[in-house]
Amino acid sequence: MNAVAELSRTQALKALTTDTHDQLDKRIMANKPFANRDNYARFLIAQYGFLRDCDPLYDNPDLAALFPDLAERRRYDRIAADITDLERSLPEHDTLPALEHTQDIPTALGWMYVTEGSKLGAAILLKMAASLGLSEEFGARHLAGAPEGRAKNWREFVAVLDGITLSATEETRAVAGAKAAFTRMNNHLDQVY
Ligand code: HEM
């Protein structure tokens, strides 16, 4: 039994993607997203692409059966409003080909882990966005925490994610889904940096 097998599913996903996350974090910060609004807009366009990719997950009835508050978790409308706040136009859908969301549920769970987990780091980004006059009401709406608080919102997500029974093959697909989601975010960053 390896060390990862001792962990909860969420802890294992974190352990298996920490290096990727750290590289992503460093890549974003190296491009100084909060130095000025033009830089922020570049970051926003990449985030937009990723959240647009993730958006169909929030309409998936099989996921809604697992996560009762699924619909409230979506951020597409908020990031679209952020782009409008900054007087930028929404990127064309063919900037990167839209994903076909014909994913099986285990793969989709890996994607959900990444998009929901990214709300944790968003707390730090929201604070930094304040230096540009941006807030959860203007330009940085998609970085806002849930009304009940980020920690509680995340704990509730994790409780469901960790409680789902998956076979070993499905578990592997969930990990692959999480890795694919991080890769996709990097692909969006390739378009703006
Ligand atoms: C500069 C940008 C970013 C910074 C500074 C950052 C920072 C952080 C921090 C500090 C946490 C841990 C928060 C906590 O434990 O309370 C976190 C969690 C997480 N972030 Fe990021 N993040 C960034 C971008 C992203 C992006 C773009 C994604 C995905 C597209 C992402 C995905 C995640 C995930 C999945 C977690 C949850 C890890 C867990 O299982 O606990 N992050 N981030």
Automatic annotation (TrEMBL):
A single BP term in Gene Ontology: heme oxidation
Database matches in Pfam families: Heme_oxygenase
One MF term in the entry's GO annotations: heme oxygenase (decyclizing) activity
Protein name as it appears in the record: Biliverdin-producing heme oxygenase
